[in-house]
């Protein structure tokens, strides 16, 4: 499960960097009318860029450390015998008026 989460995080970071290279200029052009919004967007993008680099490194390290082994034996789950089910009304028969 950790391997899958790390792989998903790398995909998300990769998509972010792809958007950053291809589409973030359109975002900045759309915020041209408000310098405050443009400054906030630039600050947010800068923070996410700085956070994404160590997050990608940690995800790659986690993928290397928790790599699934293909040689592992598959152990089937032990099935418990089915117990007879009680009717659902057993707890409210006498209480219903």
Describe the structure using short key phrases.
97 residues, mainly alpha, 3 helices, 61% helix, 0% strand
Task: Summarize the structure in words.
The chain is mainly alpha-helical and 97 residues long. It has helices at 2-22, 24-30, 35-65. The radius of gyration is 26 Å and the shape is flat. It starts with a helix and ends in a 32-residue tail after the last helix.
How is the topology of this model organized?
Elements: H1 2-22, H2 24-30, H3 35-65
Helix pairs in contact: 1-3
Nearest-integer average pLDDT: 82
Secondary structure class reads: mainly alpha
Total beta-strand segments: 0
How do the helices and strands follow one another from N- to C-terminus? HHH
Largest sheet: none
């Amino acid at each position: 499960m950790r391997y899958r989460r790390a792989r998903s995080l790398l995909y998300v970071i990769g998509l972010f960097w792809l958007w950053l290279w291809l589409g973030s200029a359109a975002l900045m052009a759309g915020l041209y009318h408000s310098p405050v919004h443009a400054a906030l967007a630039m600050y947010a993008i800068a923070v996410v860029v700085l956070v994404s680099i160590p997050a990608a490194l940690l995800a790659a390290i986690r993928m290397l450390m928790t790599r699934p082994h293909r040689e592992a034996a598959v152990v089937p789950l032990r099935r418990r015998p089915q117990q007879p089910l009680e009717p659902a009304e057993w707890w409210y028969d006498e209480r219903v008026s």
